[in-house]
Amino acid sequence: MKFNVSSELGYYFNSPGTLILNIHALKSQHQQILGESFFVEPWFYFEELISVGADNRFVRVNVTEPSPLKLRYQATVENSFDVINCADLYEVQVKDMDALVLSYLNPSRYCQSDKLYRLANNMFGYIDNAFEKVLALTEWIHNNVEYLSGSTNSQTSAYDTVTEQAGVCRDFAHLGIALCRALTIPARYFTGYSYKLSPPDFHACFEAYLGGRWVIFDPTKLAPLNGLVKIATGRDAADTAIASIFGDVRFDSISVNCEFAGTGFEPHFYTDSSSQALSYL
To answer: How far from 102 is each of 9, 106, 125, 187, 277, CA to CA, in Å?
Structure first.
């Protein structure tokens, strides 16, 4: 499927500083960039960096003097996903996991799975089928955590979300990841552009490692699972921050858009009777 994505961010640098952005669509076997552009106004030197192991694309902008700054990214992306029979999504044993997957079992800054072990196993540990187990915890988050803009901040963790029972997509994803890891299911953070997300913004969800594949889940249910354009994956939001700011900088504005560039889009969501899951590689 083909999507047109764009984002524009505005800052004001009160002094020289550095900005690292993570807004470029990921390049992968299942996601091709047909065309893209990136503008910095006024112009300052920038360079693209690729993260080790994850292939996330970062842009580092070096601002040498006090200045307003506008950054614009546009791309046409063609992506695909594998449709998998849910019955085939077994729970992979730790002894059989690839070394690159093992790090996604560990607690991380925002996903303290070690603190949620008892909760996760008491509520979901009895479910035999791995996909149904992750789907059940995703449904529990959706039904028990209120989506409430402005209710959390950059310090909010999965443990905080359980106790406060409110958050935004970032917090929903962190909680899903932490519960999966507590159940010995590797899980990672997914950030991207999202078709039909209202209001338009960058979106966060998560992927669970089932049957040897990374399978997408979104506890917010705010956008179709087949309308995602991947930007990055990581252990949690600390690995995939949209912007990392170094210096005396003020954030001014943001605009994000994702449009389907085809016809006949049929949104895909999971239900209790789902027999097919989606994997973005």
So the answer is: 35, 8, 20, 10, 22
